[in-house]
Queue: 2 jobs
Job 1
Amino acid sequence: MSAIRLEELTKRYTEGFWRPRPYTALDRLSLTVESGEVFGCLGPNGAGKTTTLKLLMALVRPTSGQAEILGLPAGSVEVRRRVGYLPENPSFYDHLSAEELLIYFAGLFGCTGAEARRRAAARLDEVGLGAERRMPIRKYSKGMVQRVGIAQALINDPELVFLDEPMSGLDPIGRRDVRALIMRLRDRGCTVFFSSHVLADAEALCNRVAVLAKGRLVAEGRVSDLLAFRVHGWELVVSRVSREVVDQLAVGARITPIGPDRFAIDVPLAVAPERLLQDFVAQGASLVSLNPMRDTLEDFFVESVAAPPARPEA
Amino acid sequence: MRLVGRLAVGVFKESVRDRVLYGLVIFAAVLMAATYLLGQLTAGQDIKIIKDLGLASISTLGLFMAVFVGIGLVWREVERRSIYNLLSKPVTREQFILGKYAGLVLTLAVNVAAMTAAFYLVLAYMNWNADDIMRRSWPAPALDPALMIAIGLIGVELLVVTAVALFFSTFSSPFLSAVLTLALWVVGHFNDDLKHFDAVVDSRPAVWVARALYYLLPDLSAFDVKSQVVHGLPVPAAAVALAVGYGAVYIAFLLVAAMLIFQRKDLQ
């Protein structure tokens, strides 16, 4: 069973009071996320990532289309019992401490007393706030509030967790911690759906990603698949060879010396690397490494969102 | 219902830690003490003045609490986006509205109870301080149990006003909600005049409009028995029961309307 299934999900708003104009925040998004996946929803600001998450949590109503979560209609109470959600830039009741807040939220899942306190303590320890759990939230830094947000999203041990920009406001250590937490969730079998514009996080964490731009899906698939056909050459590193030999064999390639007798050679795609490698070995050189030069996810992202498919008139 | 109760306790805790509410409670205590001093200035009328001022204080301060906490109940959750966390839990929007309402009712109940206790303390002191001749001159005993009827009906009126404030809070800003709620409160106290508009106006359409407004707007004069109680006049049980029933129906109407509006609201 798919954890998430979106079918032609569309959200249109109306802008302006006197002269209302339709604005399409999300345009016919169809997606499937399998159980146990870490799925990244990528896109620049205004791409429709947060709208997608709000539609999934039934915080806004779709104009058309359907969304199913864990085989049930999105927004049903049963779904909300089984999922967790971290909103973008979360905000909480200032007068409560993180511990009180989590106990309160645990109560909404029917968990009270010692069990609620145990869960709250465990979640706060998990996000690194165990020591500050009794401090009022109004005294927390932005990064600490973000950690509380992640903790509350996990208070019910969800099967599926939605994280909207989970790295927002975190310092490098915080980001590393959250990455590790997402990996732990994945290892536990929890499906993770997160939105981000930090591509390094998506590249490191996701099984699959979807790239949105101006409310439309512009690419979807495994990160490796999206980048597989985007090899634009090879990086060959050889040693125990002289500059003259390298110049002679790698004609037209970019050559970068990286040691007294060691060179990195950017071989164009038109040149077969096997043949070049044989020639170097015949000259007594040693192979250090041979790697394809791929676009990064960032290159792919920039290219994808720069020219999204034309949107039909609303 | 258990979820509604938990949400209500959350609202109550938030209110208890709200400094504005503390200010109102301190003001209420000062006002109660002031009624005693004012009573001293009016020879022979002291107990009546104290009762008048005491009941008016409970009513007015309760109104401020109901309006100024009620108008922000939903709006503030939406504005600071804390509602996203709440509605992503297994809480329906109907439960959210009911929980918010119940929480404010709990807060009001505690505050009205505290003001009532302070009021009775002042009256008890007056009673203890007065001689028999003075007591016999009072239109009703100092610690008249009928005062509780007046306070009870003030409570029902506050429940209606809270529901009005909550209703406006589901779709308008706190400022507009406050203006509309206070306007309805004023109109509500003169609503009975709309019922008998035909006695002063000949135009049939104007009478129909006035009659329609009478049924649509809350009739808060039904909850005002302060004058009868202070003067020791009887308050018929049927009138009290009718007022409570009317209040319950009006509150139910407002809460259902608030739920329907909030159910369709996009939380952008």
Job 2
Amino acid sequence: MAGLAMDKGENSGVMVSLCSLLTGGRVFGIDTRLICEVLGEHAVQRVPQAPPFIAGVIPNRGEVLTTVNFRAVLGMEAQSGTSSVLVLEDEESRERFGLMVDAVSSVVIVSAAMLEQNPSTLEPRCKTLFDGAYKMATGLIVSLDPQKLRPVRLAEMGLFSSKGRGESV
Amino acid sequence: MPDKACVDDLTKEFLAESMEGLDRMERCLTELELRPADSELLGEIFRAVHTIKGTTGFLGFGRLEKLAHAGENLLGALRDGTLEVTGELISGLLLLMDGLRKILLLIESTGGEGSRANDDDGSLIALLDDLSRQRRLHEEPRSELVVREASVAGAQAAPVDSGYVTERGANDKTLRIDVEVLNRMMNLVGELVLTRNQMLQSTMSAASFPELARRLDSVTADLRETVMQARMQPVGNLFNKFPRMVRDLARTCGKQVRLEFSGQETGLDKSLLEAIKDPLTHAVRNSVDHGIESPGDRLKSDKQPEGCVRLKAFHQSGSVVIEVSDDGAGISMERVLAKAVDRELVTAEQAAAMTEREALQLIFLPGFSTAAAVTHVSGRGVGMDVVRSNVEKVGGSVEMESRVGAGTTLRLRVPLTLAIVPALVVRSGGQSFALPQSALMELVYVPEREVADAIEQVGQAEVYRLRERLLPIVRLDELLEVPSTDRVGAHGIYVAVVEAEGRRYGLVVDDLLAPEEIVVKPLSGVLREIGLFSGATVLGNGLLALILDVAAVAERAGVRVAEPGISDGVEKSNAEEVEATRSFLVYEDCGRERKAMPLEQVERIESVPLDEVEYAAGRAMLQYRGETLVLRDAGGVLHDMEAGGTPAAEDAALVTVLICGVGALEGAVARVGVVVRKVLDVSSGVVLDEVSAREGTTLALVKERLTTVCGEMSEVAEQKLQEVA
């Protein structure tokens, strides 16, 4: 398999291995090198008064990691079914955090050349989150960059500000 | 960060070494002023400067070398005995030290020693040269020296203010550890890996599993202790900063102050040491500036012209106490009360009704300062409230005692370590939260049928009557907006009475779970911003619990600083009684005789099954947490129980043992177990000195009843240690 992928890679430039995720029926992909760990179904401890895009906290390797609720970030309703948690690491700040998605499906090898920019008509909120899309035969995989999903960044952008917190402060 | 790259390892090592040398020099200099003839001190100072000079030449720091050279000349003359130690000489040397330190810090932050115009040491070098030339000027008129002294004093004012703040250099980031300790740590980590390997290979059902779990437990406990030990720093490291500060302060205020230390070797976690540095500095400044009177005033009140500030550190019941006491004027109650009324902190009626102890609490209120004159040293609005909140932030507490004319004592009490905190786990809205024990005053359970009556309302605010005082009630689930799970269901409610930064309130929670020693984990920035949680922890059951910040919860709920002096007692005790009052644990061991144990000696109360008590060499012993405790059974409780226990009842027979710590021997606290029949109460009482002297035993009046005090068991501990040896 790897050999096949390499062959293809020579034609179309750099190959990227993506971990594909499902959230709200859509497919997303994150570079596997930026994923520390896939925890699968994992209990997330809620944090009262936290902004809505925070699912809660999880214990991981001696640290308490803040976990982002990806559905909430996309502005979707909370779902009733199960969800999976990944641990991501931001390359720059070495900050680790969790990401809660509906499901983690598989690892796919794609060519970097298949990535295309965000469409200009994309709504602003998603523009700040998405990193373009890979044109796969089976459909599009929206590329995500952990750097853009950091809790601190989401909080700074203020697009996802909470409802309940402001008045009590 | 990028500037770190320009400081290579060799320079880094040089910086750390030189800083240590200068710290030693600082200590020696102030001592030298007291004992000018001590050649050993002089040698030490000379070496510090000499080492710097030698190494700088090699590393190519010309500016530093020039300054160190000038200093070395002066010190050389001093060592040869051609110069005499004088006040201005010491001041000059202190300036030299500040100069050297400044350059070292500059090198650390920029990699270079600076060559801008304002980085010129010419005047300082000239001053040092002047000082070393004084041997020839000896016969010259005195006036010239006076002029010079004035210039020294002028130049000195700046470092007094800035020097202490910028002093955070290499020393904060590095830590010296005994290789022995490091080896022990490595051994334990090896042991941990071995245990893990065995655990991975065995299964839960394997027979060896409990054994492995036990081993894991003991290895982690040992490892934890060793790491703690490595982080422990003697308090003396902190105290060393003070002689210089006190000297400079005393000079600026025109006072004569002697500084005394004790207990410098008391260990404290490095991060805690950092945390109490500022409060302690503030306290010492206060003592010198406000506490100690001017020499003239002291003579008028029959005291030595020289005042004394004492710094004392010691262990007490699992925490470290640091006392700052002075023999100054003390705090005048009238002035405190007048000021408090003036600042509208209390009403005149309230002030009139206050006891001395309550009035002293006023000093900790924000916006309070008794300084009659605002000096440039203290009294600038940064008051005792900041000291208290800083100490409480790390889980400590502050107490103050003062006697007019005799002096003031400030007591800072801090836990041994920050990383592991005793906490109570509570549940609210189906979630677990940890409540630090340091903030917890007491727990009240209100049965369901009484809830409606017990929680009363003033307007919208809920209150609870705690010993005839109204305690504001904060419902945790409502504050956090977590959906409550039928709160007043099968059981009543729990009110945790908590206090932080002088705010006392009752926190209503759904349930109380076990007390646990929790390991504090920091939260990410986004969650810290919520401002209600100080961290998170993993509980014994593997679940996460958020640690409540008691002060922040009070703030959010709008709990104001309680009116001062909410003391527990309904009846107010008068001032003399407060002085002699101590807390006792009251118990019975035989008959109806009530006995009491000073509370600070009691570490724990344990219920132990009778068959765990073992007998050896005619003594009852108990294996307790890896220690062998000698049991003291004055009332013959064990004998009665062994005799009276029928086989059927035997497994239910529990002995109540007070685990008491007696003094510290070679760093380890010696413990004994005291067998009692029944623990009655914790209460404060007054020791009756007259009776004690006559009878040979100590009697105390606890709750108006005569009680025998069993304290001072050091002879028991000594015996025990001899046996062990």
